[in-house]
Design brief:
Bound molecules: dicarbonimidic diamide
Strand content: 15-25%
Structural class: alpha/beta
Order of helices and strands: EEEHHHHEHEEEHEHEHEH
Number of strands: 10
Strand order of the largest sheet: 7-4-3-8-9-10
Pfam families: Isochorismatase
Protein name: Cysteine hydrolase
Helix content: 25-40%
Radius of gyration: 17 Å
Distance between the termini: 8 Å
Keywords: Hydrolase
Organism: Fertoeibacter niger
GO molecular function: hydrolase activity
Length: 227
């Protein structure tokens, strides 16, 4: 069965059983007041705007029995998987591995590394722990998608211009069709968010499509009805 999702630069048709919803780095340290992102002077309310649309997309994907995948950016406590070029960047004393308000910054197992409660993964939903910005870099995501016959990725998460963009670019080069859900993605910089989405769908969809959570929900409802 193929369903149609309203999107830009044009509608996309895909088989729900070959599609996955992937939510990128909806982690406490990026999103919550008192977290690492806010400590750096960012307005986390801008990122929290994506939580409701992500919840909508998550509920719709679960109802239609899509594969749902969550990612978290973070490193081993001993930092041996973190390249020096990544470790040396950022504000002094607020770098990866430094003590932060919710534990060590971007370290696996720390409270700030967790996904926000509103989007908590179900036990059967894979969580990809990624050391890079892109979800394919040094992870088993590609294997997992291929083993499950996935050819289309529906993407939400933060931040639009960094980890969401990098993941969509990586996926596009690996042959996956990618749809960013505009309102389910967010950035600390609204201009980067807007331009980031423009870049994905430019030139006839140079590396993907852009839709929104309500359109995705409607498409999933249609899939459930048709099943
Ligand atoms: C993400 C970042 N998730 N901006 N990380 O976008 O460092």
């Amino acid at each position: 069965m193929l369903i149609t999702l309203d999107a830009e630069p044009g509608p996309i048709r895909f088989a729900p059983n070959r599609a996955a919803l992937i939510l990128i780095d909806m982690q406490r340290d990026f999103l919550e007041p008192g977290g690492f992102g806010e400590t750096l002077g960012n307005d986390v309310a801008l990122l929290q705007m994506a939580v409701g649309p992500c919840q909508m997309a998550l509920a719709a994907a679960r109802a239609a029995e899509l594969l749902v995948i969550h990612t978290r950016e973070g490193h081993r406590p001993d930092l041996r998987d973190a390249p020096p070029a990544k470790l040396e960047r950022g504000a002094p004393s607020k770098r990866i591995g430094d003590p932060g308000p919710m534990g060590r910054i971007l370290i696996r197992g720390e409270a700030g590394h967790d996904i926000v409660a509103a989007l908590a993964p179900l036990p059967e939903e894979p969580v990809i722990d990624k050391p890079g910005k892109g979800a394919f870099h040094q992870t088993d995501l590609d294997q997992l998608l291929r083993n499950n016959g996935i050819d289309t990725l529906i993407v939400g998460g933060v931040t639009t211009e960094v980890c969401v963009h990098t993941t969509i670019r990586e996926a596009n080069d690996r042959g996956y069709r990618c749809v960013a859900l505009a309102d389910a993605c967010a950035s600390y910089f609204p201009e980067f968010h807007r331009i980031g989405l423009e870049m994905i769908k430019a030139q006839g969809g140079i590396f993907g499509w852009v839709s929104d959570a309500a359109s995705f929900r409607n498409a999933m409802n249609a899939a459930v009805r048709a099943a």
